[in-house]
Every structure is written in structure tokens, then in C-alpha cells.
Amino acid sequence: MVSVPGDVTTVATTYGSILLGTCFGCALTGVVFVQCVLYYKLYPGDYVWTKFLVFVVWSLDLMHTILIVVTAWQSVITGFNKPEDMDIIPPALGLSVATTAAITFLVHCFFANRIRKLMKRWYIAVPVVILAFCRLLAACCSTSEIIHLKHYSLFIRPYPAWIFTVGVTLSASVEIIITTTMIIFLGSRKTGFANMNHIINSLILYTLETGSVTSLVTVASLICWLIMRHNLIFLGMHFAIAKLYANSLLATLNTRKRLRIDRMYSSEREQTGGHAAGLPYSGVNKSQLSQRILGPTATQKSMQLNVNVETTVVSKIDEGFDDFDHDIEEQRDSLTEFEKDDHNSVGLRGSSEKDPNVQFP
User: Which of 36, 111, 235, 350 has the fewest beta carbons closer than 10 A?
Assistant: First the structure.
């Protein structure tokens, strides 16, 4: 280990953290690129604003990768065998903080808009956007201070350290709020149909997976910043935050196709295997003529509508992510109405069987 004046004291926790963070960030950049290619290939009919959002996020992610590579080069290569330069902050590092905040802001706005469309309550989405914007402002202030001060030992002082702390704290808080709100809302939308509940459970799982990773890494970076400001371990984790947010957005968009295939397979299996699995036996062998006269039984009607509703929901997934969220609400309402109508039809059929005066045509 090499000791230098100031607060940044070891090669392993400065250059090592920057190098590992850069390598991990570059690997995630490859994942973002693949996700973008898949998105444009699988969803050519998405809204223009969604395609533009994906392009902007990908461009910012590429810019962020260039900035952290430049940071690693200036720190590790240019500063090789110069212990006195370990305390110097490359200008590209400050710009990478602002780029991370820009990606985070766009992703948070996307999910806030999704909450608004799902819950139809702007007073829940607006505070999320405000907090995300405050996080963006804090990151821009941090970038300005980093470029102005040019030394780690000066940046970790109470001011402007608290600005960076506020920015990372807001980022983690907004992500936790979005994830928790989506899970609670989707959990309350479950119906009495197994396949519809499976769709909602899949959405809950995707929300938890994409939200928990970004939250954990952001919180870990914040903890390292609070308790170990004299090294750059927090910075290595911070390099990955922008990539994880970009992947979170793209994974949310790209999983629609997978969900559609799973639901179509489940519906087809239910259609073809319903009789083999065994329907409740009515005790009467009805001929085709009597079935045509009396119509489908309540159980058959329920199964047919269930499959049709599932197919309708699945087919809407490709028409746009926002439409899919809206369709879940519409289909839940239609299923509720069907349960009422089906209950009434069963009651009428039961009363007709008891009343001998009722004549069938």
C-alpha cells in the first residue's frame, strides 16, 4: 500500500475500485445494448415516445460508459506511479455522476407515469417525479463541485458531501417507493381466475426483480459513502447504478413478449386439456341437440370466457405497455360483471328446473 497526503490513502481502494467498477459497468453496457436490439426487433409497433425513450437511455448509457473508461484511464494509466495524483478527481468522473442522474430521472419518470395510468391517481405519481427531479438537481450540483474542487479530500468535506448524500438517498428512496407501490397495487388487483392471477403474479415478480437490484446497489453505494468516505468503494458501485436503471427499464419492456407466450401456452393447454383433466360430471348424458337447445352449462361458459379473456389480455400486450396495464383493469371489471351474470343465469336455470310449468322451446 502507498500512503499519500489527504484522505484517499490506498491504491487498492482507489484505483482498484475504479477499475473494477469500470469493468463491471462495461459488462452491463453490453447487456443494455442487447436489450435495446431485442426491443426494437420485438416491438416495432410500440409508441414513438417509448422508442425515443429507449434511444435516449441507450445513448446516455453509452456516454456514461465512455466517461467511466476515461476516468479509469486518467486515474490508472496517466496517474501510474504518481501517488501524489491519487487525490485528483478526473473531470470525466464528475460528468458521469450527472449522466447517471439523467438516466435515473428518465427511468423514474417512466415508472411514475405507469403508476399514474394504473392507479389513476396523479397525487401519487407527482411526488415521485418531484423527488426524482430533486435527485437530478443534487447530482448536477455534485458534478459542479467535483469539477470545481478537483480533489477527493475536498469533496468529502461536510460541504459539498451532504449534497451527494442527498442525491443518492433520493435515488434509493424513489426506487423503493415505486417498487413498493407497484407490488401493493398489483397484489390488490387479483381476481378469482387462476390464469389472470398468474399474469398479475408474473408482473409482481418482474417488478420485484427489476426494482430490488437497483435499490440494493444504490443503498450499498450510499452505505459505503457514509461509512467509508476515505476510499472509493462507493464510486465503484456508483458506476453500476446507471447501467442497472437502464436494464431495469428495458427488461420491463422486453418481458411483455415472454409473458404473452407463457399466457398463450397456458390458455391453449387449458382449452385442449380441460376435458381430459376432468370437468364436473353433471349426471346426465346430454345429446348435441339438447346442448344446442339448453346452451352451455355454467361451468363450460365460465371456462370459455376465462380462456377468451386471457387471450384478449395477452393479445393486447403487444399493442403497447400502457395499454396492457389498462387492459388488466378493464378485464378485471369485465370478469366481475361476468361472475354476477353467471350467478344470475345459474339461479334462473335452477328455478326453471324446480318449476314444472316452465317450458323449453
Answer: 350
Stated pTM of the model: 0.75
Q: Tell me which H or E stretch contains 214.
A: helix 194-227
The count of C-alpha atoms lying within 13 angstroms of the C-alpha of 119, restricted to the half-sphere facing its C-beta, is 21
pLDDT tens digit sequence for 62-111: 999 999 999 999 988 887 878 778 889 999 999 999 999 999 999 999 99
Q: How far apart are CA 299 and CA 113, in angstroms?
A: 39
What are residue 46's phi and psi, to 5 degrees? -70, 165
The answer to whether 4 and 84 are in contact (CB under 8 A) is yes
Q: What is the DSSP string of 155-197?
A: HTSHHHHHHHHHHHHHHHHHHHHHHHHHHHHHHHT--S-HHHH
Q: Which three cell numbers stand for residue 66?
A: 465512455
Q: What is the pLDDT of residues 28-61, one digit of tens each?
A: 999 999 999 999 999 999 999 999 999 999 999 9
